[in-house]
Amino acid sequence: MSENLSLKAFIVLMKASKSVQELIKKDISNYGMRTSDFEILEVLYHKGKLTVREVSEAVLINTGSITYVIDKLEKKGLIERNNCKDDRRVVYIQITAEGRKLMDNIFPQHQKVIEALFDGITEEDKKTMIEVLKTVGQKAAN
Q1: For the segment 108-135, what is each residue's pLDDT rounded down to a tens digit?
Q2: Residues 55/40, Cβ–Cβ less than 8 Å
Q3: Distance of CA 47 to the CA centre of its chain
Q4: Nearest to 82 by CA among 93, 73, 74
Q5: CA separation (Å) from 4 to 7, 8, 11, 66?
Q6: Distances from the Cα of 28 to the Cα of 32, 36, 40, 77, angstroms
Q7: Where in the chain are the domains?
Q8: For the chain, is the Cβ count within 10 Å smaller at the N or the C terminus?
Q9: How many CB atoms lie within 10 A of CB 77?
């Protein structure tokens, strides 16, 4: 009986994903944060001012939960909301100076954890991995 490589690839992908998620969750908890808080701060830190919808699409948090997380971060003074002058239905979210200072301190450490995860993997293998995972993701989305 021949080995089903698609099934094996799927199982390896799912196990690797779980392990990576646990590693990242543990790393983020070292900063006294939940993953959802960190994801929103990270996207605003790197991309700047975004609408609530854009934030929701950029992170893996469903739209029902994102308002709650945004409210918590706003109460902590890490992000702020601003209404769009042209369309009252649109609300922009941006990181505050306090939020930026926090991310300036913790993001370089977080990046080191991610870089250590890929230590020893060639640039070519990383590029291949990116392309393969993009293809899998696009197929799953369609």
Answers
A1: 999 999 999 999 999 999 999 999 999 9
A2: yes
A3: 12
A4: 93
A5: 6, 6, 11, 39
A6: 7, 10, 13, 19
A7: 5-107
A8: N
A9: 12
Q: What whole-number distance in Å separates Cα of residue 20 and Cα of residue 39?
A: 15
Residues near 9 by beta carbon (within 8 Å), at least 6 away in sequence:
none
pTM of the model: 0.85
Tokens 């983020």 belong to: 28
Strand partners, 91: 83
Tokens of 27: 């790393």
Start-to-end CA distance of the chain, whole Å, equals 31
User: What is the layout of strands, in order, in the sheet containing 50-51?
Assistant: 50-51, 91-95, 79-83
Give the 3-state secondary structure of residue 81: strand
Query: Residue 67 has what DSSP assignment?
Result: H
Burial of 33 (0-12, 13-18, 19+ CB in 10 A): middle
Return all residues near 51 (Cβ < 8 A) that are at least 6 apart: 84, 90, 91, 92, 93
pLDDT score recorded for residue 52? 87
Helix (H, G, I), strand (E, B) or coil at 60: coil
CATH number of the 5-107 domain: 1.10.10.10
pLDDT of 2 > 70? The answer is: no
